[in-house]
Amino acid sequence: MPPNQKWTDSLEPKIKEAREKLQLTDPGKIATDAGVVWVGGGDPKFEITFFGQPYAVSWPDLVVCQPDGQICSNLDQAFLLQYLLTADATPFEESWVSLGGLPNGSFYEQAYQGYSGNVLARAFRRRPEDLKRAAEAAGGERLTVGDLSFRYLALPRIPLALVYWSGGEEFPDSAQVLFDRSASHYHHVEMLAHLGSLLCQKVIAAGKALEGVAK
Question: Same domain for 73 and 115?
């Protein structure tokens, strides 16, 4: 689901607040807690891997840039700065839960499922092999949950699991994006919901790209 422009504009105060709080914290501690790389010297910055792509966060002004050097949108600025601010080095629990299984997640879960797993299930309806190829092309590693499942490292300390179940005559195909139980130590639940939706968009886009190659 594309982000609402009004909502992304409203993120500017949160971006400012995150920068102010981060500037009061030792950058080495920030890097350790978030599992990112701190590069000191004449051009200090954090290097963050976001869905396999290298992003940079300058220091001390804390401007987030894409791999091509362009400044990120408000949404990505807020998302990555809040990750740096929230991260507390809590280890993975290696236990997958739905968004509703996280603190305060039940309030968002129904809407989240509607714009994440349900969208993906419709996009690959009765095409599990196409989903498998698309999920792998998007960087997924196979898991053994459901009929098909894949693990993604969205951010250094936020793994996601994409799980798919084949439908039949009585039940449609279904899919969910799950989170490690530690996820709430690294982001607010509404931003985690955005992350799950973004994963589904990436897999759908990978599927369309593969279709284009096949034609």
Answer: no
Any domain includes 31: yes
What does the pLDDT look like over 103-128, one tens digit per residue?
A: 999 999 999 999 999 999 999 998 99
Q: Which pLDDT band holds residue 214 (cuts at 50, 70, 90)?
A: low
Cis peptide preceding 156, ω within 30 of 0: no
* Cα 120 to Cα 175: distance, rounded to the nearest angstrom: 7
HEC secondary structure over 40-78:
CCCCCEEEEEECCEEEEEECCCCCEECCCCCECCHHHHH
Domain containing 102 equals: 96-214
Residue 88: which residues within 8 A CB-CB, separation 6 or more?
33, 185, 186
How far apart are the C-alpha atoms of 160 and 151, rounded to whole Å? Answer: 6
As a whole number of angstroms, the longest Cα–Cα distance in the chain is 63
DSSP lists the bridge partners of residue 149 as 163
Structural domains of the chain, count: 2
Closest alpha carbon to 198 in 158, 163, 154, 156: 154
**Which pTM does this prediction carry?**
0.92
Say how far residue 59 (Cα) sits from the centre of its chain.
23
Is residue 100 in some structural domain? yes
Q: Among 31, 64, 86, identify where a domain stops.
A: 86
Q: 138 and 81, same structural domain?
A: no
